[in-house]
Amino acid sequence: TVTKVYSNFTNRKSRIDGFDHVVHFGLQAYLHKLQEGFNRFFEAPQPQVVQEYRWRVERILGPDAAKAIGTDHIADLHDLGYIPLVFSAVPEGTLVPIRVPSLTVENTHPDFFWLTNYIETGLSAAIWHPSTAATIAHAYRVRAERWAERTGGDPAGLDFQIHDFSYRGMSSNETAAATGAAHLLSFKGSDTLCAADFIEKYYGGPYD
Q: What angle do CA 166, 160, 18 make, to 5 degrees?
């Protein structure tokens, strides 16, 4: 669960001082949203989703390219009725060394090899921001603990000493929720109230 991610860093001496690791966070929320999007895709009439795809490709690449690309693969995916992908990942909240993948995506049906590429951009956009926010918050936590120890500060207050007031500076409510939740991997103080909703919706329970 997200509530215990910070306490589950098992080796405190290995915590990052610089940014040679990244905190993996946000994939589970993305998978919920991906499933919701594909549910709408499969529930819609096939002629509708095929036509929408054709229109979109025509507007972006032109009629000739749209004709060359075709829509059979979209119709076939609709007929399949499920997402033929397998996601494998380290547990959320894990410190992952730079140059080590935190997740992989594989297709499970040879006819839909193209689907991994189709979701790549959306996947990157969904997890980059919360992972980055979680990594920065973790680095703050490391430094706060170090200076509390050096100066004789009471470590009991660290959970609330680096408080999240970032909501009004975010680009959207969705971004605020994701990055606010990421901050809560390392701290407990937050005025980004929608972060609690994000955690409850995508991570299976209230944040405590």
A: 70
Whether residue 86 contacts residue 105, with contact meaning beta carbons closer than 8 Å, is answered with: yes
| Amino acid at position 8, single letter | N
Q: Amino acid identity, residue 34?
A: L
Give the model confidence (pLDDT) of 52-108 as tens digits.
999 999 999 999 999 999 999 999 999 999 999 999 999 999 999 988 999 999 999
Reduced to 3 states, what is the DSSP secondary structure of residue 65?
helix
DSSP assignment, residue 178? H
Pick from 31, 20, 32, 24: nearest CA to 8: 24
Distance CA 156, CA 136 (A): 21
CA gap 156, 8 in Å, rounded: 17
- State pTM to two decimals: 0.85
The separation between CA 47 and the C-alpha centre of its own chain, rounded to angstroms, equals: 32
Q: Is 141:162 a contact under the CB 8 Å cutoff?
A: yes
Distance CA 121, CA 189 (A): 32
Other C-beta atoms within 10 Å of 137: how many?
22
**Bridge-based pairing state of the strands 85-89 and 21-23:** unpaired
d(CA 186, CA 180): 11
